[in-house]
Amino acid sequence: MANSTISSGQDLERDQEVWDNLKQAIADCSGFKQWQSRQKAQSESSPLDQQVRCYLRETLETLAY
């Protein structure tokens, strides 16, 4: 029996597609754009993937309080 924690290539492709769509939706939202403008100097050189991850991390940290 195959280990259920090992993803197939199709699962990984699907996960990447979901992440790409989610990342784009977040990048299009006004909250992200406001955050991005406050991070201007730092975020200009960062790839969108890294910016979205940082935004999500900071947002979740704020919600945790």
Could you please describe the fold and organization of this structure?
With 65 residues, the chain is mostly helical. It has a domain at 28-65. Helices cover 77% and strands 0% of the residues. The chain contains 4 helices and no strands. The chain has helices spanning 9-28, 30-38, 40-43, 48-64. The longest helix has 20 residues, at 9-28. The model has no long low-confidence stretch (mean pLDDT 87).
The total of helices stands at 4
- Tally of DSSP β-strands: 0
The succession of helices and strands, N to C, reads HHHH
Tell me the Rg in angstroms: 15 Å
Global structural class: mainly alpha
Shape: globular
- Overall average residue pLDDT: 87
Name some characteristics of this structure.
65 residues; mainly alpha
Brief summary:
By secondary structure, the protein is mainly alpha-helical. The chain is built from four helices and no strands.
Helices and strands in order:
Blueprint: H1 9-28, H2 30-38, H3 40-43, H4 48-64
